């Protein structure tokens, strides 16, 4: 399997900017982690860029086409003037691209705490039109949204994002994902109510969230999306609400 990975923008094109962070830098970080994950699956990987450079969109397509890539994944983050805009999405043009987009989206979606934007057919985008293999553009959330920005600059979240993309590709290919080291704690399916999210967690997870909300424990990266999602309903006293919900969840599950 030959995977071409395209870190969006680069060089003089910073892409979107939010809170002093440039999209091209975050895209490259995630793309390099995706490269490692893909190589662990035994796939051949070609990058359209590996540093601060700007290959034109036509060059990016040519790199993938001339190499004979089987799949093309372009890594981006979104921006809008409205700071409340949020959510990940995956863009495609062809029917085969749509199938790949769906698999990747299903894996990415739990990593952003706010409701996501889904799949979008975007016929006007050069790297989707100019590539001959199934191609997608992954938009991993909004750099202009403070909550999502805080996630995307965190290397642990970036690793989860790269893993999610790689797992989505594995799903698309119908092959098992080869994890690095111990299998990370699965992120529960997202819900939009903090109480429901925590109730969906198992007793051990509820206990860990409770300990974190009470200030007595650190929260591992695998639980950040859960805590963020839990907090998204009511940000002002999020920790107290998570504590209430975690207590209720642990109680409902026969603990405490
Ligand atoms: Zn972009």
Would you give an account of this structure?
The protein is of the alpha/beta class and 256 residues long. The protein has two domains: 2-173, Zn-dependent exopeptidases (Aminopeptidase, 3-Layer(aba) Sandwich); 194-252, no CATH class. The chain is built from ten helices and eight strands. The strands form two sheets. It has a six-stranded mixed sheet with strand order 4-1-5-8-6-7, with helices on both faces. It has a two-stranded antiparallel ribbon with strand order 2-3. Helix 3 (95-108) packs across helix 6 (155-173), helix 7 runs parallel beside helix 10 and helix 8 packs antiparallel against helix 10. Zinc ion binds at residues 8-9, 15-16, 23, 76.
Mean pLDDT, to the nearest integer, reads 87
Shape estimate: globular
| Number of E-state strands | 8
Assign the CATH topology of the largest domain: Aminopeptidase
Strand order within the widest beta sheet = 4-1-5-8-6-7
Which molecules are bound in this entry? zinc ion
Radius of gyration: 19 Å
List the helices and strands in order.
EEEHEHEEHEHEHHHHHH
Q: Main β-sheet: number of strands, strand sense, barrel status?
A: 6 strands, mixed
User: Structural class, from secondary structure content?
Assistant: alpha/beta
In CATH's first tier, which class of the largest domain applies? Answer: Alpha Beta
Assigned CATH architecture of the largest domain: 3-Layer(aba) Sandwich
Counting structural domains, the number is: 2
Helical content band: 40-55%
Helix count, per DSSP? 10
Q: Spans with pLDDT under 50 lasting ≥5 residues?
A: none
Please, what is the CATH homologous superfamily of the largest domain? Zn-dependent exopeptidases
